[in-house]
Write a structure and sequence with these properties.
By secondary structure, the chain is of the alpha/beta class. It is about 35% helix and about 20% strand. It has two domains: about 100 residues, Roll (Urease, subunit C, domain 1), CATH 2.30.40.10; about 280 residues, TIM Barrel. It starts with a helix and ends with a strand.
């Protein structure tokens, strides 16, 4: 009897253990659609199938086996592709069409209140099909807070690479303290404002101390700032060298805000990983970027937007906005012909969040093929955000539909290679195996 009772106990334990394992097993979801986009080759194939187990892609292709018990989601006449990536956003805010109202809000909202707005902007970005972003400049560590909250599952939004404060000179585009010094203290290295190589090194270290996973700095003036000409270098070569050198020593990539050509030349010489905007770049600078593998993040829609809204800005900004809107698309045409590596980025916050995909029609209007535009927002942007400097063997965890990658997947209606505006209306959005749009 004791032997029988012991055997029964063993069977019970085995059954309970098996039940527990089964209950804890990750869900298997099979996504099916009429087409699937290969973000490495730029080709579209029919009969798209992607198998997702938990948060990971486990099989891809029309011949992929469908596991028993899997949930099958048939999206019909749609195209499966990797989750899109916006390489240039600012989720901590959004410009008001009334510039003066926006200035007032910037001065009176607390960081906690502004972060609540940021959580809304993050969800709008995710709903638009962008499952990863690079946030290149925020104040009060709001981007860091959003990133941590998203990772913890407290709020919903895209994966974030973030820079904290952008770095630049006193009075330059990174100097966000517009109030007189008798009203509020001037910004210093903690807030990204530096003068001289050693202060600039300190500014980089402060951003990394508080979690920055990329460094953003401002070699040239900006469009939407009051005091600086848009095309003038605002840092010396020694200061740029210090910023880039310090960041690379700490294994952080560096994004350089450059509208002006001379500032971009200096930034490329310093060794930056990407040039943001590039509005007034000349062909020799673009060729140097191609030779060194420096990405261009063109933000065409931001320039288009400020051109449309120029009359709502103060006179000093209006003049710069019109000049940028006129030149940016022409520069992009030259960059495409020269073959500069291009990563998708919008400068979302200049225009309302959630409109990221509007960048695509401007890219294709100005000489880029639809396939290349989609690759710029997937595999190429993933390389910029997640690739390891100098080691192409390290593959980013997103940007392609491959076994072992994170299950960041979108579906666009119809065939986006025939109608690029399909990017503006995703019918399905998944991040990390969790469905956010088009869930069935």
């Amino acid at each position: 009897m004791r032997i029988l009772a012991f055997s029964v106990c063993l069977l019970c334990i085995a059954f309970v253990g098996a039940t527990s394992v089964s209950a804890d097993a990750p869900q298997v979801v099979v996504l099916k659609a009429a087409h699937i986009f290969d973000s490495v080759s730029g080709k579209l194939a029919d009969h798209g199938v992607v198998v997702v187990t938990g948060d990971t892609i486990t099989a891809v292709g029309s011949d992929a086996a469908i596991p028993a018990g899997a949930k099958v989601v048939d999206l019909g006449d749609a195209t499966l592709m990797p989750g899109m990536i916006d390489s240039h956003v600012h989720l901590d805010g959004q410009f008001e069409e009334n510039w003066y109202k926006g200035f007032y809000q910037d001065q009176t909202r607390s960081p906690a209140e502004q972060a609540l707005y940021g959580s809304l902007y993050a969800r709008e970005t995710l709903d638009a099909g962008f499952t990863s972003v690079r946030d290149v400049g925020s104040t009060d560590y709001i981007a860091a807070a959003l990133s941590h909250a998203i990772d913890a599952g407290v709020i919903e939004g895209p994966r974030m690479i973030f820079s904290n404060y952008a770095i630049g000179s006193t009075g330059g585009h990174a100097d966000g303290q517009d109030l007189p010094p008798n009203v509020a203290p001037p910004y210093g290295p903690v807030q990204g404002v530096c003068n001289g190589p050693e202060e600039c090194r300190a500014a980089v270290r402060y951003q990394m101390k508080y979690g920055a996973t990329v460094i953003k700095f401002m070699p040239s003036g900006g469009v939407l700032s009051l005091s600086d000409p848009v095309d003038v270098p605002e840092l010396t070569q020694d200061e740029m060298n210090a910023i880039v050198g310090e960041a690379h020593t700490w294994h952080r990539k560096v994004a350089a805000h450059c509208h002006g050509d001379l500032a971009a030349k200096m930034a490329v010489q310093a060794g930056v990983d990407s040039i943001e905007h590039g509005t007034f770049l000349q062909d020799d600078t673009l060729k140097e970027m191609k030779a060194k593998g420096v990405y261009l993040v063109p933000t065409l829609y931001a320039s288009y937007w400020v051109g449309q809204k120029a009359d709502t800005y103060p006179p000093a900004i209006r003049e710069k906005a019109l000049a940028a809107a006129k030149q940016s698309q022409l520069m992009f045409q030259h960059a495409v012909k020269i073959g500069v590596p291009i990563a998708f980025g919008t400068d979302s916050a200049v225009e309302p969040h959630g409109l990221d995909a509007q960048e695509f029609w401007l890219m294709t209007k100005n000489g880029m093929s639809p396939a290349d535009a989609l690759m710029a927002a997937t595999a190429r942007a993933a390389d910029l955000l997640y690739g390891k400097r100098g080691d192409p063997s390290v593959k980013p965890p997103v940007g392609t539909l491959e076994k072992g990658k994170w299950a960041d997947i979108v579906a666009l209606p119809g065939n986006p290679l025939q109608d690029i505006h399909a990017t503006e209306h995703p019918v399905f959005v998944m991040k990390g195996g969790v469905c956010y749009v088009g869930c069935k």
